[in-house]
Amino acid sequence: MEWRERDGVEWLQAELPGATAVFSTRSAGSVKEDVGPLSTALGLDPARIATARQVHGTELAIASATGEEPEADGHVIATSGQAAMVFVADCLPVVAAGPGGAVVLHCGWRGLAAGIVSRGVKLVGATHAAVGPGIGPCCYEVGPDVLDAFATLGEGVAAGRMLDLPEVARQLLARAGVESIESAGLCTRCEAERFFSHRREAERAGRQAGLVWLDGEIE
């Protein structure tokens, strides 16, 4: 995963087999309100970027350029010519790719507990994944119900009431059969100059993007 920058817009980029993953920063503004600065920096046609109404569930949409926004927390891309995006501001953006294409997932604790990772991995036979910036174990204090949801994962996912959401995602990806997992290791709540954070800014928080496209022309 490497930092990239163009025209004042900064992002993290990961190269997966046959796909490219991008994780934006607040330098692109709130992508939920305006994807223009990010799409321009990346050289993408915004009309080719699929989005959805996120509900912290496990439904995944087949990415398309129809302009419609289904109710889903991720997208599947099986052919080139299309990109897809999820919105995050402490939840994790996760991208996985394999012989069947690529998925981009909006992973809050509810979606992770309900199985969104295994579902996405199976749909494309993912072998590689990238976990973007999200709230870290330094800042994510949760209640017993949330801790109980991940009790079967064993050691390493929590210290007291502090949940390590990226480690939860990593373990779930590994259990689903993903061989190579790269993680940004950046906390959105701590890095105020770089990321939006719902825990830090509440309803004022903008949204970063987790974005994926398959290798090939998509403009």
List the helices and strands and how they pair.
Layout: E1 2-6, E2 9-16, E3 19-24, H1 36-42, E4 49-50, E5 61-62, E6 74-77, E7 83-88, E8 92-98, E9 101-107, H2 109-114, H3 116-124, E10 128-131, H4 144-149, E11 158-159, E12 162-163, H5 165-175, E13 180-183, H6 198-201, E14 208-214
Parallel strand pairs: 4-7, 5-6, 10-13
Antiparallel strand pairs: 1-2, 2-3, 3-14, 6-9, 7-14, 8-9, 8-10, 11-12
What does this structure look like?
The chain has 219 residues and is of the alpha+beta class. The protein has a single domain (2-214), classed as CNF1/YfiH-like putative cysteine hydrolases, CATH 3.60.140. Helix content is 20%, strand content 30%. It has helices spanning 36-42, 109-114, 116-124, 144-149, 165-175, 198-201; strands spanning 2-6, 9-16, 19-24, 49-50, 61-62, 74-77, 83-88, 92-98, 101-107, 128-131, 158-159, 162-163, 180-183, 208-214. The strands form 3 sheets. It has a 6-stranded mixed sheet with strand order 1-2-3-14-7-4. A 6-stranded mixed sheet has the order 5-6-9-8-10-13. A hairpin with a 2-residue loop joins β1 (2-6) and β2. The radius of gyration is 16 Å and the shape is globular. The chain starts with a strand and ends in a 5-residue tail after the last strand. The mean pLDDT is 93.
Query: Which secondary-structure class do the elements indicate?
Result: alpha+beta
Radius of gyration: 16 Å
* Count of helix runs: 6
CATH C-level name: Alpha Beta
Low-confidence stretches: none
Give the strand tally: 14
Number of domains: 1
CATH architecture heading: 4-Layer Sandwich
Tell me, rounded to a whole number, the average pLDDT: 93
Classify the fold: give the CATH topology. Answer: CNF1/YfiH-like putative cysteine hydrolases
* Helicity range: 10-25%
CATH superfamily, please?
Answer: CNF1/YfiH-like putative cysteine hydrolases
Shape: globular
Question: What oligomeric state best describes the polypeptide chains here?
Answer: single chain
Question: Widest sheet: strand order?
Answer: 1-2-3-14-7-4
- Element string (H = helix, E = strand): EEEHEEEEEEHHEHEEHEHE
* Distance separating the two termini: 23 Å
Main beta sheet: 6 strands, mixed
Strand content: 25-35%
